[in-house]
Amino acid sequence: MNSRMAQPASFSAIPAELLYHIFAHVSGKDIVSVLSTSRYLRTTFLHDETIWRELCARYGVHSLESFRLHDPNRTFFTVYTELLHTYGPLIGLWASDNPFNGNILEFRIVTESRAVGWEGIVGEVWRWSDASVDLGDEAIASSITLPTTPDYYECLRIELLASPRLIVDSELDMANETLPKTKERLFTLKSKGKSPSSQSIPKLRSSMLLFTQVAHYEPIGLHRGKPTLRTSSPSCLRLNNPHQQAFYVSCGPPDAGHPSSLHPEFPPTNLMDFAHQADRFPRIAPQSSPPWDMQKYLKRVGWKRAQFSNLFYFAPAEAHCSVLPRSITLIPPPKPPSRYELYDHLLSPQKESSISDIRSEVKKAYLKSGGEPYLGHYFPIPWSSPPLPPPSDVPCSWEPSDLEGLWIGAFTYATTLLYLKTNETDGNLTVQAWKLTGGPCVPRGAVTWDFQTSDVLSPYENVDLLMEMGIKVGGEDGVELSEIRMFNGSGVVSSEGFMEDMRGVLPLTVVVLNRNEMRMRWTYHDGVWMVFGYKRYPGRDLSSESPLNGVRYSAVNLR
Fold first, then answer.
1. Using omega within 30 degrees of 0 as the cis cutoff, is the peptide bond preceding 180 cis?
2. Per-residue model confidence as pLDDT tens digits over 51-77
3. Would you say 83 and 160 are in contact if contact means Cβ atoms under 8 Å apart?
4. pTM
5. Which helix (H) or strand (E) holds 53?
6. What is the pLDDT of residue 167?
């Protein structure tokens, strides 16, 4: 080989300033991999706070104040390598495939560590009280149902400890055998000399994390003054590989000619790209599990003496259905059973309805076959801050695509979470509202209403209608007609079960007040109409929330 040929450059030849610039544009996983390949890089950059501060900032951690409650010397390196590298991707919102009702789970950094006494990441389930009814003034003939912001119920703590906690192998054995085997420590130092005999001491594993599952007494929302229930475990989070689990509803025995109806897929196809965000999943080993199939129990159901109108059951997805993407599952504590049920109800809530779960109809056969609980899947959903209001001298300055995002809407005295998305077909632009939470009639994963932006109405010709919908026009506290856009739309209704032959469509009058607020009038077949309000989800203001026994009660007023 010619000695004059250029030799491959090593990382040690790259100036530190250039490496900092490179690291700022690659993932934390890649940075850790690079540092693991070279002793020089580990020696030079392992404890360089410049790198770890930037990586922590990606998860919203710009200060260590909330992480120094128990350890005043904690560094960005420790916070990232022990907590954020593995579990930071969880931060944000997750939506559940829980049949009919769905569920919303939020992970966030505990910024109030001095008030709660621990540091790390908290998982909280969203719960809504009833939607508020604004009776308006005497000039308004109708009642307007407005949405409310949710309360936030703590369900999981991923706690960063002050010093490594030694986990005995027997603790791991007590956990569900499907739990992931993770390596919390990214960088470990090998001690010199011989290790103690494995027979003289129990096998231990070093961990800086403690997982705590939090359950709440029933009924949810009425337990003020009662303590929460906490269970610690080595881990209670599972990363699922893509699966083909589906849900079905039937109104009679299949062998008698009663067809089954496929429950809406979740996530729905139009929102599937959200769930394929690779950087939103925890860095733990994924696991696969076969879909549940309870079709064999259908013949054991006592259809003639049944007290239900429709039966819900699990089965593998049909060939035409999509393969659902990766997801996470929170695993309830294995015992006692009462605590498991409380935790499961928090993660997979169900409302009273005429729909029966096949597991309750064939309970003996189900328990005899093992009776394992179904653990639902949570998928990542995006959320961004509401757009800034337009300048005061630019009336109605928005485009239909500006409406996309998370909205909360009122539906017959209840609030649901929607994701608004635009869809263009044959040159027509349609705004669709997809349900992330739902109910027995119109479940999660279904479109609840839509409108085409070409089917417009004139606000100037419908002033009386606007007044009936509780919209004040003109004056100091009213809306200018030039700022309002109106459309004809359609809303989906159904009886409980949402089977294909039960669904119907109602005409809507859609009033877009601005990019963050709408009103809609639903006109029913008997001529009765109702007005519902919709607002973009405003995000959280922790300083305004009232914490009590693991619940943070919202104080945001959406009126």
1. no
2. 899 999 999 999 999 999 989 989 999
3. yes
4. 0.87
5. helix 49-57
6. 43
